[in-house]
Amino acid sequence: MARPLRVTAEPGRTRPVMIRPGLAVGDGSPVVIAGPCSVETPEQIRTAAQAVRRAGARLLRGGAFKPRTSPYSFQGLGEEGLRLLSWAGQLTGLPVVTEVMDTAEIDLVARYADVLQVGARNMQNFRLLTALGETGKPVLLKRGPGATLEEWLNAAEYVANRGNERIILCERGIRTFETYTRYTLDLATAVAAKQLTHLPVIADPSHACGRRELVPAMALAALAAGLDGVMLEVHPDPARAMSDGQQALTPADLERLMATAGLAPETKAADSP
Amino acid sequence: MARPLRVTAEPGRTRPVMIRPGLAVGDGSPVVIAGPCSVETPEQIRTAAQAVRRAGARLLRGGAFKPRTSPYSFQGLGEEGLRLLSWAGQLTGLPVVTEVMDTAEIDLVARYADVLQVGARNMQNFRLLTALGETGKPVLLKRGPGATLEEWLNAAEYVANRGNERIILCERGIRTFETYTRYTLDLATAVAAKQLTHLPVIADPSHACGRRELVPAMALAALAAGLDGVMLEVHPDPARAMSDGQQALTPADLERLMATAGLAPETKAADSP
Amino acid sequence: MARPLRVTAEPGRTRPVMIRPGLAVGDGSPVVIAGPCSVETPEQIRTAAQAVRRAGARLLRGGAFKPRTSPYSFQGLGEEGLRLLSWAGQLTGLPVVTEVMDTAEIDLVARYADVLQVGARNMQNFRLLTALGETGKPVLLKRGPGATLEEWLNAAEYVANRGNERIILCERGIRTFETYTRYTLDLATAVAAKQLTHLPVIADPSHACGRRELVPAMALAALAAGLDGVMLEVHPDPARAMSDGQQALTPADLERLMATAGLAPETKAADSP
Amino acid sequence: MARPLRVTAEPGRTRPVMIRPGLAVGDGSPVVIAGPCSVETPEQIRTAAQAVRRAGARLLRGGAFKPRTSPYSFQGLGEEGLRLLSWAGQLTGLPVVTEVMDTAEIDLVARYADVLQVGARNMQNFRLLTALGETGKPVLLKRGPGATLEEWLNAAEYVANRGNERIILCERGIRTFETYTRYTLDLATAVAAKQLTHLPVIADPSHACGRRELVPAMALAALAAGLDGVMLEVHPDPARAMSDGQQALTPADLERLMATAGLAPETKAADSP
User: Less CB within 10 Å around the terminal CB: N or C of chain A?
Assistant: First the structure.
């Protein structure tokens, strides 16, 4: 197989992906991306965004176009979800990450999002990758649950090859025989991706584990392994989430985790009058 | 998760998918779909089509838009490939099957193809599935190498849900730890798909095995398990194939296999003057 | 890694393993080994053995020492189970196959059994393999659910290397992400094992599928793929089986399967007065 | 399936396993076990032990009876290896961990070892587990590469059930489709094992990764996830190791890792007179 050329040009020398002035992924200080699985209501996304901001996360995630196993499951709010996400991001000053599912929707999603996410199921949707390579937007490329390291890096190459090297790789668990967890978070391969490319690499322990009680430990593990950040599902009221509630942290969970990780915002004089 | 409703309405009672008058998949007599991985030249596809026809296969396959792991691998001839495939099909009287990779290409591919294939990597490209549900064309839906039975049937439901129940399921191997074969052909799950739905189910031992010498045994196994057909890669000169040559049968291999399977055309009076 | 030498000395030229005069595995006519998962009572094993015999199977299987995931599950009847199995074999004229779990038990089991089975969980119990290499008894070596082809053949080499080449390989399903079936029956690798060695290779679709309704299709598939036989769980009353009842065929199921496979005993003059 | 009872009696409340006075695994301060894959020569094991001691590891590992895929690979020095390992342990004051492969060898190995290791391939060697349950010795139980969490905990139950609860669980990588690493280190399931039992749990990133350059990151990840320790392969001269050299750290690698992990011995006044 042809090797990926562009993304492996300087193995191990991570080049930061600038999101906005003052915020990059891969510059040596780990970044937390957090938010709900799906954007559901104005109140829900606003509350989530504020909690995420307060805890010290730097980007807000939220799904508007949701790829769901069944056509009868909640498919996201669509453009309305994009609008709400963008609004919550502006309220809190957080750039937003959301998924784009089809070439025909790139323009729409790009109007609202700061980072365009390629979901795990679309990792080898080559038309989508190529089209994203022609935007100038940062792309968050999730590893497919059945994809090898080689396939993942080649998927990134499809984007880079069209001139867009603003790519963040995201390991989110692979399919294995173990069913206690939803997927198996493959941190070693994520570390290998950092060693072999110059792309920043993050991990998504929420989707990988599928169980809230394992997420903090695996987020800490990902950071200790040297990854550039983690992506976490946080919901103001997980029990009522319209999708994946069992893996969402509460705002309080997130604050504890950020404190343990040494990533909580400093509580300065300004906070105590 | 919401259950697939339409495709499981009559479990185990396979409804044939008509391809053209006199040719259905799932009517009780197994069908062989054969042809090269990629359409390469007029000569190549014509020779392949004639060999396929002579051996008794009923449909011609061939890739024009090729999803490849690397952007630097041969990506297929595109529309020119579609034209050549369609031409070879007409020459030999065989309907043709070829892959469609993106919603934006459905109209183009549908102009040339009798059956629209969804490749394994796109099994959960939900926009593509939905759009194919709105064509009236037969859809050959390959199982993703990392997809569970439940996900596969729900992917079919995305098509059926839009009113198109002309779906043929195709098992083509799943990702496992075994590396001697390219993938692991999961015939038991293919049989389960037949038991749980009314859709015809076929197998693709060529992609699953990745080794020519295992293909005939696994094709015979698939037919003995009661599947509705097999899809086989056949190339007039495998050593020169532009993709996947190591798994392609020669025309002579195909003839032997068809004879062993009892599917060779009868050598009638017409053959002996 | 060092290659297995003895078992690959004549790739693809299967040498039959003689079980007793007139009965070999690997001589070109496929052999069915059938019986209950566990020996439970005299009545149960006798009834099972008679049904197995009547249907045309050539060897009787039954567990006396049962390796079970939990220490609190039924562990088999031990030596009493061996005695009953041997008695039922003598009653029906069928040689018997049963598992040996530890070097310290080989002598005991060998006193009662015609074929010594190494269970999947013990495939790399190298002390056991070596010790079995020093008996002259036929060994049925199951592939471990997490074992590669290379590991399986090397496990056989541990036996052959000590001078005992009376080895029958048995594929019984590998661990994959698919959970609809208990394991994934990997027939392609079983075929590869035949191509690479001179050992007979059989398949065990009962353990692989874990669901009765898939077993006949997969048994037929295994035979069509050219394997030397199949091993099937059959219980006179599956609903009351002390282990693995959901995957056991009834005697009637077995008879139907044997007839479909063309392996039913000929109904000779004796049957019609 | 019957649930494991003893090992899950107090989920999440880890009970330390005392190795010797002043040294426990699971008491809240993580423990590093290090040493060569195989004991090879007096010089090699002595040098390794001294390096391991100097770096701050608390137990010495080394294989004397080596389970190897091929019978033609180096099988370890046997009892001579046990003697050398024990000698090196005494020289450096480190307790030693080594593998026992068969019920018939328990007494011999127990004479030399402080902790008896059950290798991954023997995780479901139930006779061995039961016999180890009847010794009073600490048992280090590796997870099988094809074993689920449920099977792993039940294997521990086989030991506990006989009265020996001095069990340390060790995750060492599972078999998945990813081949860049040797196995996939499944830290999430290791964390789950800690949450569900009262047993200490450690990880072995050396066997899991199979590549030296990934080991430090994964060791740090395991510790950050809250595991009770890590087991590391260290060789004075990895390029000349008789087994698994490509995954062994050098003594200098180990010192760097221990320093990063905050586990290096304090260089106190006492050290400089």
Answer: C
